[in-house]
Amino acid sequence: MELMKKSIYTDKIKAKAMLQIPLEEDINVSDSRPDVGRLVFTHGRIKIDEIKTGMNKIWVKGKLLFQVLYEAEGKDSGMAGMEGELPFMEEIYMEHVESQDRVICESMLEDMRVNMINSRKLSVQAVISLRPRVEELVETKVCTGIADVRMQTSKNGISSIEGEQLEYRRKQQEYLETITCKRDLLRIHEESRVGSALPAVGSLLWKSIEVTQVDFKPLEEKLAVSGEMTVFLVYTEDVSGKINWFEAVIPFSGNVECQSCREGMIADVSYDVGHEEIIIRDDADGEARMIGIELALELEMKLLCKEEAQVIADVYGVSCEVDTITQKSLMRKLHQDMYVEEKFTHNTRLEEAQPRPLQICHSDARLEIENCSFGEDEIVWKGTIQVRALYLSEEGGGFHTLEDSVPFQMTRQVLGIQKRGKDFMEQSYSLQSQLKQLHVSLKDGNQIEWRGVIQIHMPLYDANQEEMLQEIEIGELDIQKLEKLPGFAIYFVKKGDTLWQIGKKYYVSVEKIKEMNQLTSDEIKPGDRLLIVKAGEIE
Question: How far apart are CA 512 and CA 531, in angstroms?
Fold first, then answer.
């Protein structure tokens, strides 16, 4: 006898690790740059260049890219900037990893400090964290039917094979299937212009791109990506050398081809900024006002789809012996595709020694989810928002930086999550977070107000090990076992009994029990009396 089977694919974490790496290096200021008088603004980001896999280990190669904006001293007083990088190469032990595995590595800049050693040398210290993991697609086969040319199935679900009778029970199986797991690249090319209210660009001292408001939407054969990028420049005028700055928020959108993608799927996507470049070009009037932006978003894409199928849950024989072979399989269902947003407001008071702000030039923020915990029908997220602003001071018009760390906690009710097993943390959710709509303003001479929206996307799953039918073996009826059963019996229904269980025990079809007891449905309750006629007693 051949069973009709369907393959279901579910992604599962095969191995994971977490590593913190300290980086420290002294950096000489190049001869083309003026002496450092005072550090003003710094920025760093991690770029992963290469990941190699071996048996039970991986190698991660990358670099910390940093920028420094500083106030020059001496005869070259004014503003200046410099860039640099700190490379790293780490070997990480990961049990069960094989050379052909695909590794996903999340990176985070935990901390970065730049200090002056002297006017020609800086110390760069940083701590980065790497969280590599290997996900594999696990195939689960479920039985959807019985295929045999010798089998005839009646309307009531009784199947006969060469005169034998089988009873089988179906159930509706809902599940979440992983349709695709892939890495892809979205290249973005945008343009902006320095308006006539500002002077044309002479020399760039600082350039940065912050990507925010990123959204992913599955469409037919493609994944639509949209978002915003904030471009910030500090530059000198071409003639006078006066310091100016420019900031623009530029929307972007694009599509990534994905043959298996369709509308309505769950998009579980994370991203990193890979290549980024800002190019200053002349406009039609020959002035350096055109800003070309090239950006590459490295996407880790996972698309999931809600599905359902009729599967055979159990089989027994009426005039034959049937042995069933089952297997515990990971079956995942969507509990809730959560999008949570919460506003935050925070005021930072300047210290007495801090220069008073006249105008805010630029601001940015980094959201960190430090803990995600599950309680009685609720989820709690705790984290911090690292905010900072570059501003022009009242005294002398110099540039200064204000930084603050804003703790937050968010709680949402979600019914049913307290029933999860200990495997929950590993397989039952993914988490992406971002800060949207950051707005910074001067509240008074001593305070700066931060406002924004915390957004969390968290697909939440029910991941359970379920017994699934894999094979059935049919043999001759055990006559000795059958003879031990009474030919006729009055059965008193107990709590938890079903017609299926009773029929399986007495080698009687469900339809036969219903017929003998004039039942119109499968519903029975404790205390009911049923007449049971053993197979073969009545023709």
Answer: 10
Residue 54 near residue 15, CB atoms below 8 Å = no
Query: Domain spans of the chain?
Result: 14-136, 148-319, 337-468, 484-539
Q: Tell me: the pLDDT tens digits for 209-263?
A: 999 999 999 999 999 999 999 999 999 987 777 899 999 999 999 999 998 899 9
pLDDT, one tens digit per residue, over 67-87 is: 999 999 875 578 999 999 999
Neighbour count for residue 156 (Cβ, 10 Å): 12
Rounded Cα–Cα distance for residues 450 and 408 (Å):
13
pTM metric for this prediction: 0.84
- CATH ID of 484-539, from 3.10.350.10, 3.40.50.300, 1.50.40.10, 2.40.240.20: 3.10.350.10
Q: Strands 529-533 and 488-492: what pairing? A: antiparallel
Between CA 455 and CA 369 the distance in angstroms is 11
> Residue 119 carries which side chain, given as an amino acid letter?
S
Residue 493 and residue 501 in contact, taking contact as beta carbons nearer than 8 Å: no
The whole-angstrom separation of Cα 151 and Cα 140 is: 26
